[in-house]
Write a structure and sequence with these properties.
heterodimer, A: mainly alpha, 15 helices, B: alpha/beta, 6-stranded mixed beta sheet, 13 strands, 43% helix
Chain lengths: 317, 432
């Protein structure tokens, strides 16, 4: 009897520590709420992305198979546009220029960005944030203004570099009018502008590496090189992959710098694939071949990105 | 608000946002005409009214439009949009492709006229409308397949501009510089005596180089295309001109630069460039504006000849014209175009552009103006005293690309002039 009374008393009085359950709003109690709500949050992005991002890509792909004279209705032309572009030696040269400039750019960018990142990460570096800002500043400048400033610097008559060379008794260098030098002038401009940006990304990656791993290597008798080879490089691989892929895609899309500095010259030495697409579509009024060239370029970007990812994931590295 | 309405609100807001983004990103409505169509029985009188959208790249004409056309045409609400020439062409192209967003009128260059007119987006001028103006324009009306679509404003006539004070300093008499050979000789002397710093010729590279070289060929009587748009196989004039230019490059008497470079007028100021061939916009307007310190020193010479016995002549670098787009306020647009050549507009155009493509402009006091910058020379009168040849601009973008490659290779001495011309012939004749 006492037990029964105790049980009734327990049942009637809830435990003192239990919190009352909140009453959820009706919409949140709906069984589809957790499924639908996230999509509503991302909907604004897709409302713009579908027509102007994905839609534009699909439209361009369709255009590559059309003969579309301006002012007239388009007609299906099969792969004729691809044949025109594929057999155009100018497109071949533009692709080649873009590819070798990309290779040279990556070969210089990755070590330099890594060196800057490692320096920024060094324990003994004073005013680290100031140095980070200094290296990051170039990417914040307008690309057009930076290109114009470099154009002035490169000028063989009145440019800053020509002035320095003149003071040293050396002849001026025609950076932008020599077909062998003009591509390098553009690569240097690009490197100056982006090194800090990628270095900051790699620096963030370096910051995630636990310091006790380095300690473990030094306890085992390993020096700085061993630390770099066995700790830094493997653990920095995700950041390196991101930097490589982003830089590669950006390099395939090289347009503004050669368009502003050289117009693709001299003698097409700096003509890039995107410049070819622009000239074909907007200057020659050939929308179909321009779209076909853009499609081929997109395939090159995708292929390079896949190869790069596989190479960086390789255990050999 | 109930929970149900809140859910509806979010969904509706998302849909509205998307619709709003889509409509905002669409091109603007093409203004509708509220006047007559312009192809009326009395074509010389346009009672244009309503909104008139004008896309313009000729910046020197903006002030006359705003200060003279607008007040004298209160019934026309002008929306003047100033754009860089390349932006303007891109926008026109996109608007034609989209079928909307076109202006009522746009200032364009005759170099891209064939591609633009081929689209069918431009309003033609009828014979009746042109009758009062045809005599004044002669052969300079901008047409395509026999139909006139544009009334040219400036004619882009080339003169050879020299710093006479510098030439005198080096004992070079500018009055003897009438042939290419005499100019080349003067250029070599200037280069040598100045220690290799001062040059008498400018040779651009890239597309400006192609246009410039084409103008050099045109002034000598050559053309890439005939009047029907067929490629001319015999390019002996072009080869002769390219051999001459390459000779100048070998003698180091040229500056590889052009008027669009930020350092062009710095070279002039620093006495590193004391001569160049170009139109009035560059030589007569921009030069005095950018190098005021050399006022009184410069002169404009007649365009050089190959032989002293050759007739005096020059060439057009390319004309500007106002093209009228179909489907818009064509009446107001034609009213604007004909205003440009009326008693009010013509003197203002002459002030803005210098030499015009309209013969009656030669009677204007502006043409007889003496320019202090050029030592009192009547520059415009001297410029238009030279008969002008008009290049046949067909497939010009492709022509520029092919010619610029060949000329760049030849000037850099990576290709002989004859091989460079062969390259041009091979690649351009395919397009006929």
């Amino acid at each position: 009897m006492t037990f029964m009374r105790e049980r009734e008393a327990t049942r009637a009085t809830p435990p003192a520590t239990a919190q009352p359950e909140p009453r959820l709003a009706r919409r949140r109690r709906h069984r589809l709420y957790p499924l639908r709500t996230p999509y509503l949050f991302v909907l604004p992005f897709f409302v713009l992305f579908v027509p102007f991002g994905a839609g534009a890509v699909v439209f361009a792909l369709v255009m590559a198979f059309l003969n579309w004279p301006l002012g007239s209705a388009p007609s299906f032309t099969g792969v004729a546009n691809f044949q025109v572009v594929g057999t155009d030696p100018v497109f071949g040269q533009a692709l080649w220029n873009t590819a070798w400039m990309l290779f040279a750019y990556l070969v210089l960018l990755l070590p330099l960005a890594l060196a800057v990142a490692v320096t920024l990460n060094h324990r003994g570096l004073h005013a680290r944030r100031v140095w980070q800002m200094v290296f990051f500043l170039p990417i914040t400048g307008s690309l057009v203004i930076v290109s114009l400033v470099f154009e002035l610097m490169y000028d063989p008559h009145v440019g800053f570099i020509a002035g320095v060379l003149h003071q040293m008794g050396l002849p001026a260098i025609p950076f932008l009018t020599n077909p062998s030098l003009a591509p390098w002038a553009i690569i240097i401009l690009r490197l100056w502008r982006v090194i800090g940006y990628y270095a900051v990304i790699l620096f963030a990656g370096l910051q995630t590496i636990p310091p006790d791993l380095y300690e473990a290597v030094s306890i085992d008798g390993g020096g700085a090189l061993a630390q770099f080879r066995y700790i830094t490089m493997p653990l920095l691989r995700p950041s390196l992959m991101f930097v490589s892929v982003a830089a590669t895609v950006g390099a395939w899309e090289l347009f503004a710098e050669p368009q502003l500095l050289t117009g693709g010259g001299p003698a097409r030495a700096t003509l890039t694939a995107v410049m070819y697409v622009y000239q074909t579509s907007f200057l020659n009024f050939q929308l179909g071949p321009g779209a076909a060239a853009a499609a081929i370029l997109a395939l090159c970007v995708i292929a390079t990105t896949i190869l790069l990812q596989r190479a960086l994931r390789s255990p050999a590295l | 608000m109930s929970a149900f309405n809140r859910r509806q609100f979010i969904s509706s807001a998302a849909v509205l946002l998307g619709a709003g983004a889509l409509s905002a990103c669409g091109s603007t409505q093409h203004t509708s005409s509220s006047g007559s169509t312009g192809s009326s029985a009395n074509p010389t009188v346009y009672n244009g009214s309503g909104n008139l959208t004008l896309w313009n790249y000729a910046s020197q004409f903006v002030t006359p439009i705003n200060t003279a056309f607008v007040p004298s045409h209160p019934q026309i609400k002008l929306d003047l949009v100033n754009l860089a020439i390349s932006d303007l062409q891109d926008r026109i192209l996109v608007s034609i492709a989209a079928g909307s967003g076109l202006p009522d009128s746009a200032s364009l260059t005759s170099r891209s006229s064939d591609l633009l007119f081929k689209t069918g987006a431009f309003e033609p001028w009828t014979k009746a409308e042109l009758a009062p103006l045809k005599k004044g324009f002669g052969d300079y009306l901008v047409s395509y397949e026999g139909t006139v679509y544009g009334l040219p404003t400036n004619d882009g006539r080339l003169g050879f501009w020299v710093n006479n004070a510098t030439l005198e300093k080096y004992n070079i008499d500018s009055s003897t510089l009438t042939t290419w050979e005499s100019l080349a000789e003067a250029g070599r002397k200037l280069n040598t005596d100045s220690g290799g710093t001062n040059k008498l010729f400018m040779v651009p590279n890239g597309s400006n180089g192609a246009d410039y070289f084409s103008a050099l060929v045109g002034a000598a009587g050559g053309n890439w295309w005939n009047a029907k748009g067929e490629f001319i196989q015999d390019q002996s004039i072009a080869e002769k001109m390219l051999t001459f230019v390459v000779g100048l490059a070998k003698d180091k008497t040229i500056q590889i630069t052009d008027w669009t470079q930020p350092t062009f007028f710095t070279l002039v100021k620093q006495d590193q460039l004391s001569g160049f061939g170009m139109n009035f916009a560059i030589g007569g307007i921009n030069l005095p504006k950018n190098v005021p310190s050399q006022s009184g020193q410069w002169r404009m010479l007649d365009w050089p000849k190959w032989k002293a016995s050759d007739p005096k002549r020059t060439v057009s670098y390319g004309m500007t014209f106002f093209g009228i787009l179909k489907g818009g306020n064509t009446t107001a647009a034609k009213e604007f175009a004909t205003w440009c050549f009326g008693s009010q507009g013509l003197p203002l155009m002459a002030q803005a552009f210098g030499s015009l493509a309209y013969a009656d402009a030669s009677k204007l006091p502006t043409y007889q103006q003496k320019f202090d910058y050029f030592g009192g020379q009547q520059v415009i009168a001297d410029l238009v005293a030279q008969p002008m040849l008009l290049p046949n601009f067909f497939r010009w973008s492709k022509t520029e690309q092919v010619v610029s490659y060949a000329v760049d290779q030849a000037v850099l001495q990576k290709m002989s002039p004859s091989k460079a011309i062969d390259y041009i012939v091979t690649n351009l004749s395919k397009l006929s």
